[in-house]
C-alpha cells in the first residue's frame, strides 16, 4: 500500500467514525427489506419453520464467514475454505469409520477434537505459506484449495465417504437436527461462535492488531505489532471456524463427496462483504457477516418459494438482489 | 558336444513352443481413455473400466488394456496421443467433453485403429469418428421414471429436482414429460439442484415449505436423493409416498434391494457402460464378431427383484 492511498484511507476512516453505528445497522436494514419482499412473495415464507430452516442451513457459510472476517480484516484472503470443509469432513468420517475407539461417545469426542486439530492445522498451513513463504494469499490459498480438494477426491476415490456406524449416526444427528431450548442447535452455534469472535475482534489486543495490520501493515510493523503472527493467527481462526462448520455439516447428510463445499469460499467472501467488512481490510464486522450469510441464503429461499420466477433466471435475480442489497447499504451510509 | 547338441535342441524346442504359443495368444493392445474420478458417476466409470479390464486380461492372455484418466479435454487429448504412441489396436474413449476431442479421436481413427466411443457423442457422430458407439439413454432415464409414476400413482402431485442447465438434463426432462403424458400426474415445480447433495437438500426443504402435500419426488440422480431423503425425514412429513432417483449408485441400489419404502425403484444410467464398450471391442478382435454400429443401453428399471444384478458393494459409487 502506498503512502497516498494510506492518507486517503485515514481520511475516509476519520469521517466514517461518526457513521459507525449506521454502517453496522445497514446490513440489517437490507435483511429487513428482504423479509418484507419474501412475505409478499409467499405467505409460507414468514412462517417460523421456514425462517428456522433458512437460518439453520446458513450455519455453514455463516460460521466459515466469521473466520473469513478475521482473514479479510487483516488484509488477506482465503480461497481454500470450501475445499477445506470437504477435506476436514472426509478425515472426520474416515476416522469415525475406522472404529479405533469402541465406545461411541468417546469416539465422537475424539473425532470432534481431531476435527478441530486438523482444521487448525489446515489454517496454520495457509498462514505459514502466506507469511513465511511470502506468497500472495490469493495464490497461496488457490494452491491449497487445489491440494485440499485433490486430497478429498483421492480419499473418496471420486465417490462418497459415508458414515457407516448407525449408532454413531444416531448419537451425532442432533448436532444438526436437534434443539436447545426450542432453538435449532446450528443457530445456537452460530450465535456462540459470533459472540466469541466479536469479543476477540472488538475487545482484545489481538483484535485491534488484526484491524491495524489490515489498515496498513507497514505502519503496524513500525508500531511493533508482530504482523506475520497476527496474520497467521487469523488464518488459524479461519481453519477453526471451518472445523466448527464441519462439526455441523457431517451430521446432516453423514457423508462427503468430491463436490462437497464447492464455491463455498465465494459465498463466504460475499457474506463478509455484504455484512459491511471492506474487502481491502482494516475493518471487521462480525455480526454484519452472519447477517450477510443469512441474506444470501434467504435470497435463494425466496426465489424457490416464488411462483412466478423461471428456474432459468434464478442466478441472474440472485445477483441483482445482492447488488441491490449493497446499494441500499451504501445509500444509508451516504445519507448520514 | 552332446551337451551342446542337447542345449541346441532345447533351445529349438523352446523357440517352436514360443511360436505356437504366440499364435494362441493373439497380441492386442487396447487403450481406454476416461475422465478422472471427480464426482460419483465418473468414479464409477473408473472403477468399472479397471474391473472389466482386469477380467478381460485374465480371460485373454494376449490382451493388454491400458486405462488412462484425464481431468479435462486438453489433458485427455494428450492422453489419447500418448496411448497412440504406445501402439494401440483399439481406443475406448469416454470423452470429458466430446466436441473438443473430435480431432484427437479422428487422428487415431485415421491410422486404422478401432475406436469405441462411450456415452457422450460429438455433434457429428458417424463412422468417420468412431466404429462403435455405446450410448446411455438420458431420454429413457426420464421416461422410465415418468412411466413408473404414471402406473403406480396416476394422480400423483410431483415435484421435480433438475440437475444443471445442460442438454443432458433437458433430455431427461423431455423423457419424463413423455412418460407421464396422458395421466393425471401433476408437476408442481421444477428447480435446479445441480446434481449436488447439499443443494438438493435445500431445494427439497423449500418444496416442503411451499407445498403442503407432495406425493412423489423425481430427482433423477442418486446423489441428490441423499439430500432429498434427509430433508423429508427432518420435516417429519408423511405425505410423500416415494422418491425416484437414477444412475445406480450402490447406496440407492442397496435401498431398493432392502425394500426401502421411500426408494422402491431406481433407474439405471450405469457407469459400467464403459465395460460394455470394452467387452464389445475385445469381441471384435478375439471373437471376430461384428460390433460396429450404435448400441444404446436401456434405462433399466431396477426393482427389488433384479437389484442384486446391479449392486457393486466395492465400487466407490
TrEMBL record, chain A:
Q: Would you indicate the residue range of the signal peptide? A: none
Where exactly are the transmembrane stretches of this chain?
A: 20-42, 54-72, 79-100, 106-126, 176-202, 230-250, 262-279, 286-306, 312-333
Ribosomal protein found in the keyword field: no
Q: What is this protein called?
A: ABC transporter permease
Pfam families, sorted: BPD_transp_2
Subcellular compartments: Cell membrane
Q: Which InterPro entries match?
A: ABC_transp_permease
The record's section on CDD domains has: TM_PBP1_transp_AraH_like
What topology does it adopt in the membrane?
Answer: Multi-pass membrane protein
Record's keyword annotation contains DNA-binding: no
Which controlled-vocabulary keywords does the entry list?
Cell membrane, Membrane, Transmembrane, Transmembrane helix
UniProtKB/TrEMBL annotation, chain B:
Q: Which domain of life is it from?
A: Bacteria
The membrane spanning regions, by residue number, are none
| Pfam families reported for this sequence | Peripla_BP_4
Q: Can the keyword Signal be found in this entry's annotation?
A: yes
Query: Which compartments is it annotated to reside in?
Result: Cell envelope
Please list the residue ranges annotated as the Periplasmic binding protein domain: 30-274
Keywords, comma-separated and alphabetical: Signal
Q: Which family does it belong to?
A: Belongs to the bacterial solute-binding protein 2 family.
Name the PANTHER family for this protein: D-ALLOSE-BINDING PERIPLASMIC PROTEIN-RELATED (PTHR46847:SF1)
UniProt protein name: Substrate-binding domain-containing protein
Amino acid at each position: 500500500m502506498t503512502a497516498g492511498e494510506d492518507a486517503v484511507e485515514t481520511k475516509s476512516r476519520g469521517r466514517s467514525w461518526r457513521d459507525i453505528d449506521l454502517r453496522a445497522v445497514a446490513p440489517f436494514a437490507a435483511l429487513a427489506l428482504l423479509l418484507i419482499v419474501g412475505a409478499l412473495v409467499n405467505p409460507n415464507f414468514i412462517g417460523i419453520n421456514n425462517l428456522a430452516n433458512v437460518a439453520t442451513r446458513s450455519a455453514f457459510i455463516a460460521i466459515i464467514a466469521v473466520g473469513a472476517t478475521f482473514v479479510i480484516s487483516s488484509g488477506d484472503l482465503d480461497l481454500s475454505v470450501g475445499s477445506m470443509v470437504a477435506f476436514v469432513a472426509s478425515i472426520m468420517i474416515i476416522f469415525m469409520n475406522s472404529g479405533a475407539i469402541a465406545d461411541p461417545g468417546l469416539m465422537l469426542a475424539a473425532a470432534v477434537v481431531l476435527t478441530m486439530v486438523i482444521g487448525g492445522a489446515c489454517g496454520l498451513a495457509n498462514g505459514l505459506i502466506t507469511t513465511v513463504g511470502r506468497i500472495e494469499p490469493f495464490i497461496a490459498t488457490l494452491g491449497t484449495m487445489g491440494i485440499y480438494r485433490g486430497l478429498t477426491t483421492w480419499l473418496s476415490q471420486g465417490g462418497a465417504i459415508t458414515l457407516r456406524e448407525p449408532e454413531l449416526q444416531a448419537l451425532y444427528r442432533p448436532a444438526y437436527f436437534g434443539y436447545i431450548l426450542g432453538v435449532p442447535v446450528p443457530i445456537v452455534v452460530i450465535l456462540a461462535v459470533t459472540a466469541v469472535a466479536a469479543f476477540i475482534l472488538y475487545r482484545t489486543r489481538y483484535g485491534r492488531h488484526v484491524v491495524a495490520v489490515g489498515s496498513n501493515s507497514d505502519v503496524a510493523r513500525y508500531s511493533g505489532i508482530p504482523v506475520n503472527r497476527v496474520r497467521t493467527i487469523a488464518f488459524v481462526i479461519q481453519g477453526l471456524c471451518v472445523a466448527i462448520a464441519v462439526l455441523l455439516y457431517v451430521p446432516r447428510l453423514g457423508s462427503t463427496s468430491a463436490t462437497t463445499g464447492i464455491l463455498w469460499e465465494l459465498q463466504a467472501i460475499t457474506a463478509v462483504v455484504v455484512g459491511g467488512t471492506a474487502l481491502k481490510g482494516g475493518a471487521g464486522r462480525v455480526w454484519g457477516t452472519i447477517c450477510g450469510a443469512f441474506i444470501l441464503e434467504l435470497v435463494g429461499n425466496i426465489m424457490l418459494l416464488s411462483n412466478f420466477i423461471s428456474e432459468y433466471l434464478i442466478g441472474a435475480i440472485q445477483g441483482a438482489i445482492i447488488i441491490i442489497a449493497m446499494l441500499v447499504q451504501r445509500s444509508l451510509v451516504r445519507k448520514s | 558336444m552332446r551337451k551342446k547338441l542337447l542345449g541346441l535342441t532345447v533351445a529349438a524346442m523352446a523357440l517352436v513352443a514360443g511360436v505356437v504359443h504366440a499364435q494362441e495368444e493373439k497380441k492386442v493392445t487396447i487403450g481406454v481413455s476416461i475422465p478422472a474420478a471427480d464426482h460419483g458417476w465418473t468414479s464409477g466409470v473408473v472403477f468399472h473400466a479397471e474391473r472389466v479390464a482386469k477380467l478381460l486380461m485374465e480371460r485373454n492372455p494376449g490382451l493388454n488394456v491400458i486405462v488412462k484418466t484425464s481431468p479435462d479435454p486438453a489433458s485427455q487429448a494428450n492422453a489419447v496421443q500418448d496411448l497412440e504412441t504406445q501402439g494401440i489396436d483399439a481406443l475406448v474413449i469416454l470423452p470429458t467433453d466430446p466436441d473438443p476431442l473430435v480431432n484427437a479421436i479422428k487422428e487415431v481413427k485415421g491410422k486404422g485403429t478401432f475406436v469405441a466411443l462411450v456415452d457422450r457423442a460429438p455433434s457429428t457422430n458417424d463412422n468417420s469418428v468412431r466404429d462403435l458407439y455405446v450410448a446411455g439413454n438420458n431420454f429413457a432415464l426420464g421416461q422410465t421414471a415418468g412411466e413408473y409414476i404414471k402406473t403406480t400413482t396416476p394422480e400423483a402431485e410431483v415435484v421435480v429436482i433438475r440437475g444443471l442447465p445442460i442438454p443432458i438434463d433437458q433430455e431427461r426432462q423431455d423423457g419424463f414429460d413423455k412418460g407421464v403424458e396422458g395421466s393425471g400426474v401433476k408437476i408442481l415445480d421444477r428447480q435446479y439442484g445441480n446434481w449436488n447433495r447439499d443443494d438438493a437438500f435445500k431445494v427439497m426443504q423449500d418444496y416442503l415449505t411451499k407445498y403442503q402435500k407432495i406425493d412423489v419426488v423425481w430427482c433423477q440422480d442418486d446423489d441428490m436423493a441423499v439430500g432429498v431423503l434427509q430433508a423429508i425425514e427432518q420435516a417429519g412429513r408423511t405425505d410423500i409416498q416415494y422418491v425416484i432417483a437414477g444412475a445406480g449408485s450402490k447406496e440407492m441400489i442397496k435401498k431398493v434391494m432392502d425394500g426401502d419404502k421411500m426408494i422402491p425403484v431406481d433407474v439405471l444410467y450405469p457407469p459400467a457402460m464403459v465395460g460394455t464398450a470394452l467387452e464389445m471391442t475385445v469381441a471384435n478382435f478375439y471373437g471376430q464378431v461384428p460390433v460396429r454400429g450404435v448400441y444404446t443401453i436401456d434405462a433399466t428399471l431396477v426393482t427389488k427383484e433384479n437389484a442384486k444384478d446391479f449392486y457393486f458393494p466395492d465400487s466407490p459409487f
